[in-house]
Amino acid sequence: MIRLIDVKKVYDNGTEALKGISFSIEDGEFAFLVGPSGSGKSTVIKLLTGEIVPTSGRVMVNGFSMGRISDKQIPYMRRTIGVIFQDFRLITNKTVWDNLSLAMRAVGASPREIKARIPYVLELVGLKGKEQSLPDQLSGGEQQRVAIARALVNNPSTIVADEPTGNLDPARSLEIMTLLERINALGTTVVVVTHEKGLVNHFDKRVITINAGMVAGDAMGRYEVAR
Ligand SMILES: Nc1ncnc2c1ncn2[C@@H]1O[C@H](COP(=O)(O)OP(=O)(O)OP(=O)(O)O)[C@@H](O)[C@H]1O
């Protein structure tokens, strides 16, 4: 479960990115996080992944308290969460298989586990047969599928995606969002930051709106522009 309680984030240069936000996302939920540019969405994502810590308030992710987490606990917390970015962030000189196996080896998976798991996730994301491709031999949509496979490979309970369709055309964007919906239906909690109103409104999901570092809306189904 994800829980933010009165979270404030002030960056070193004095920017008040979050001004006291609270919300919870239950296990198995799918939530869109929307809002204008600079409203604080990526800051929320970075708090969830442990890249930054809150200035005040509490951030709980899958039982870990992110403000107080010890260095020793961080790898265990990270295993519970798979992260997807706009720019894919694949290792460009490694094959699809190697991108995924490296992610598994990083958490101590055995060769046997790797051999069993990678075909399963590649099938799930629709990339069977692409094991030996290099990222730049794939389309943008396919590269994002590899990134989703990598995020899933260690079986996290939660997937967090920061503008996952930002570099894709509308048809590819819809496919990627549909894939995330399917992954959610299989039991994984999914949190997606996006600007794309049309895409959000295509899916009947929870929409949390951030505006100027505050929660400006939290409702099912529609991306309403904050006033
Ligand atoms: N490392 C940083 N240091 C200082 N200020 C930052 C830093 N990162 C973000 N900010 C500021 O914090 C505020 C929120 O930024 P954030 O990236 O969370 O917004 P966002 O909603 O994700 O925006 P976008 O949709 O444009 O990606 C902005 O005013 C931004 O300039």
Query: Under CATH, the topology of one domain is which?
Result: Rossmann fold
Could you tell me the radius of gyration in angstroms? 17 Å
Structural class by helix and strand composition: alpha/beta
Distance between the termini: 30 Å
- The geometry reads as globular
Total beta strands: 10
Low-confidence stretches: none
CATH evolutionary superfamily of one domain: P-loop containing nucleotide triphosphate hydrolases
Which CATH first-tier class of one domain would you pick? Alpha Beta
| Oligomer type | single chain
The run of helices and strands is EEEHEEHEHHHEHEHEE
Strand percent estimate? 25-35%
**Total DSSP helices:** 7
Instruction: Label the CATH architecture of one domain.
Output: 3-Layer(aba) Sandwich
Hetero compounds? adenosine-5'-triphosphate
Give the biggest sheet.
6 strands, mixed
Largest sheet strand order: 6-7-8-3-9-10
Percentage of residues assigned to helices = 25-40%
Instruction: Give the overall pLDDT as a whole number.
Output: 94
